Amino acid sequence: MSEQKMETEPFLQIEDLAVEYYSDGKVISAVNGVSLRLEKGKTLGLVGETGAGKTTIAKSILRILPDVGAKITGGEVKLEGKDLFKLSEVEMRKIRGNNISMIFQDPMTALNPVQTVGDQIAEVVRLHSKGEKHDFVKRAEEMLEMVGIPAERYHEYPHQFSGGMKQRVVIAIALACNPDLLLADEPTTALDVTIQAQVLDLIADLRKKYNTAMLLITHDMGVVAQTCDDVAVIYAGKIIEYGSKEQIFDHPAHPYTIGLFGAIPSMSGDEEWLHPIDGLPPEPFNLPKGCTFHPRCPYATEACRGGTIDMRRTADGHQCRCINIDTVKKQEG
Amino acid sequence: MMVSVTNAAVSAAPRKKQSEFMRVMRQMRKNKLAMLGLIIFIAELIIVLLAPFISPYDYTAMDPIAIRQGPSLQHWFGTDDLGRDIFSRILYGGRYSITMGLFSVAISTTVGMSIGAVAGYFGGQVDNIIMRLLDIIQSLPAMLLTIVISAVLGSGYGNTILALSVNGLPAAARMLRAQMMRERDNEYIEAAQSINCSKFRIIVSHLIPNSFSPNIVQATMGVANMIVMAASLSFIGLGVQPPTPEWGAMLSGARQFIRQSPHMVIFPGLAIAITILALNLMGDGLRDALDPKLKR
Amino acid sequence: MARYVLKRLLWMIPIALGVAVLVFTLMCFCPGDPAEIILGSTATQENLAAKREELGLNDPYIIRLGTFLSDTFIHFDLGESWITGASVKEAIAERLPRTLLLSIIQLIISFGIGIPLGVMAAVNQNKWQDNLCMALALIGISIPNFWLALLLVILFSVKLNLLPAMGIGGIEYYILPALAGCTNGIAAGARQTRSSMLDVIRSDYITTARAKGVPEWQVIVKHGLKNGLIPIITVMGTHFGKMLGGTMVIETIFAIPGMGQYIINGVNNRDYQVVQVGSIFLAIAFSFCMLAVDLLYAAVDPRIRARYAKGGKRRAKKA
Description:
Chain A has helices spanning 3-8, 54-62, 89-95, 107-110, 117-128, 133-146, 163-175, 193-210, 221-227, 245-250, 255-262, 325-332, and strands at 12-23, 26-38, 43-47, 70-79, 82-83, 100-103, 181-185, 213-218, 230-235, 238-244, 312-313, 319-320.
């Protein structure tokens, strides 16, 4: 792929994605006009609190939101120029697990408890490649070895594995067909801290091998620092800050992002207290008008409480959805 | 650097224990089908209680001229082989059928839960022996056990209730015990132990109140089951005997006229079916209300 | 696994003994003098006394119990009917298969129809298919099957004259009894399948399967239904007990000479031997079916298989 073509047509492009959930007669806007882009082989970190809509975005890309109670209400997702939302279900099935695959948050529940782990890996291979049963089995065994599980354990069931091992199996399933894009939904959150690093390294190694792009969903700034090229910060279903890792980490512009960093203990500083963000995330069926963050924002002005707040470029070129950038910058220094 | 963003779940604030009952009632009231079931059942209870005022005829009055007549304006549900008004008999019969269901479930639930609580409280050998006895009782199909017991006790209203209650015991006992075992592993029990709560107190004020809601659902569903069992028992000649207008007994008497007078078979059975339907609607609603996990 | 099955088979011995003691004891409290019932009310005092002596009714309870147990379990002598004098063994050999056959047919129909209905309802949750299925299921569990049997007789035998109303013979004699006995089962199967499928469909591993590109029907059947089967099998097991009981009543309606008719007549005639031995056999048959259910659990769920292999007997999952 030429440099020029990548300019015009990014590998993955999400435009104005909007998703709604319906529950008890209430409409919940989980994702409100999210736009992202990701180049081949790169990693984009999607950072935000629980309930901000991160997982919904990933599931929308694969079109695996629950049939009942969830609906993609707008936008498009383009993979190498192809609009995934316009594909038929059959075409989409060929993409799932093959071109795009997903690692789920909780390895404890992500595996089918009544199927051997080997078969669960072989199944995805069978669905997306031609061959005989023994080819699939061989590939599954290879994948097991690749994620550090002896191939002899092919015939064991998920309940015979520990959490970290299960996540390795989930990774093996996700990578068995050499996908171009990996959606990793908090792949390490449910794991012990000691296992987390191992799993991240494993994902990094395998991705390097196949030049796989990754959308990494996390609420862990440490993981972002370790893995990502670009970062998008999401709050209440909207991207509020978007830029390269360096831009976001060195010059966070949105008060929310600044707040996130304030909630992390500094190793060098001698501050006694962390600075958590006051208040709670807004209820998704009752979002505040204007900037959704204004009720919790220390810099909120009257202008924040109404109208639409657009993304704007900051001085160093990354994007931020805040009308008081300059004030914030001045005060935070 | 491994610090998470405030993990404030969107979940509602934890509710107090007292409001649990109110919550269940609220849920029930929202469930239209459950309310329909409740209304039908209550209406039936009222009609059956007021049978002497509502029924157009004396349920024992025979009319030798109007024998096995089909439904008409005089006799809504027709008459039986002795010329008795079937509608009136069904009204009075409901007193037997419905109360047999209610009482036998009340007995089997209370006694069964006590047995379950004893097993759960003492544990060890006592638990073991009780459970093995229940195993034996349950290894007989319920209908068979009821048939044998009602043969022993003899027929009649009270005896049939007793016979029916016995077969509901094991399920009620097991349900409470299993639920107690499950609750026992919860952390709040450990918390109670850690503040030196006595075992008896833990069971009475923590375990049982938190364990019996499945029993309530079971009991509601059980009433329906018991009414059918009672009717089947009377139908095969045990249980309540004719001329008592119990629904099953009425069907039993109607059987021989099935060729000539099907209406004698249809109406008493319809009465049973509607009652069971109402109870099942209530039971479903109650189950959904008590177990929000199952709700859509 | 073999050890588990062996253990369960051995456990049936005390169960059968327990049932024998239970039923024997219950029958002892039965009102009415069997001798008088057998000989009729015209029998003389001497004849009655002789009959009582012959049946061993004059011995103390414990001796009679001992004799009964040793005859049944040690000598495998099932004795004769007190009324007809016919061999109980032969009668059971002839009747038990009929009752089991009828119950098993009902069970197969119930779940053969109930499970697909439940799956369809769950997959189309809250749509018309779901509402229709659940409405039918609600009606299905609300109709007492002995009444349905009568209605079927009215419709198919009396009005349409299509099917025989009673007796045994070819397959046509089993259609109405089987139909009457299976509606409760279909309904219960559909309801349980729906609720366990609704639980399962929300599981993460179902999302995993979808994310793998598994076709939807395979997601539902291979990943969903297989996981949802455990509670369905449980319902199936408890329902089999109900069907055996229901079959007893249905047999009397259709005049099918099965165990139900045998035992109910035995009860009415105070034919103790028939009731006792019949009950033991029904209990054993029932225990075998329960064992089959537990083995089905193991076949479906590797976790349960592992627990059985370890020799654990408990079915309940420990938190």
